[in-house]
Amino acid sequence: MTSTVPALGTLTAEGSALQAVLLDMDGTLVDTEGFWWDVETEVFASLGHTLDDAWRHIVVGGPMTRSAGFLIEATGADIGLDELTVLLNDAFESRIDHTLPLMPGAARLLAELAEHEIPTALVSASHRRIIDRVLPVLGAEYFALSVAGDEVPRTKPHPDPYLAAAAGLGADPVRCAVVEDTVTGVTAAEAAGCQVVAVPSVGPITPAARRTVVPSLDVVDLPFLRGLMTDLR
């Protein structure tokens, strides 16, 4: 986990119970959920296997160990998890070297949070090697810290990544707003006790208590995020 933790005095904005914003990466800030499926399809094709498109919703948003393990079992491919993980990460890095589009509203939201000195963390199930390739495109200066899927005992859908991010920022998870795009990520954030904004990328997500579903980041700004904390004031 990389960290540049802000001074505690910046944690609570005046008049708001919002202490920090924790953001997922793939499919939330960068338009890469489709990249992962394309890479998985290409790698398994090179191994002589065709992936069923119905499996896409099973592997999306999850940790590499879960998605790769599922695909090995589903296809019967003769390859170990460690070897496959390297192939997938290599192929993904090659893909993002050519293009890495941001999701609509992502750049504006990050700039707004930075302008108002809201502590912000990047929390991803992707491995550190991938996060470190994406951070310069997003703007590493926008994040006080980042948490990678291979840096916590249990990654999403477990709460560990979001609990680690909140602790690193010195924030109460209950007073953190999380922005996610998959059921797996939403499950992790809610298990950590955070307020969640879901921006579905691949599969549908339904509204629930402490969960707000929006069509895109274009409708998410600082007043919106502060408004999620109204009951905590």
TrEMBL record:
<dbReference type="InterPro" id="IPR036412">
    <property type="entry name" value="HAD-like_sf"/>
</dbReference>
<dbReference type="InterPro" id="IPR006439">
    <property type="entry name" value="HAD-SF_hydro_IA"/>
</dbReference>
<dbReference type="InterPro" id="IPR023198">
    <property type="entry name" value="PGP-like_dom2"/>
</dbReference>
<dbReference type="InterPro" id="IPR023214">
    <property type="entry name" value="HAD_sf"/>
</dbReference>
<protein>
    <submittedName>
        <fullName>HAD family phosphatase</fullName>
    </submittedName>
</protein>
<dbReference type="Pfam" id="PF00702">
    <property type="entry name" value="Hydrolase"/>
</dbReference>
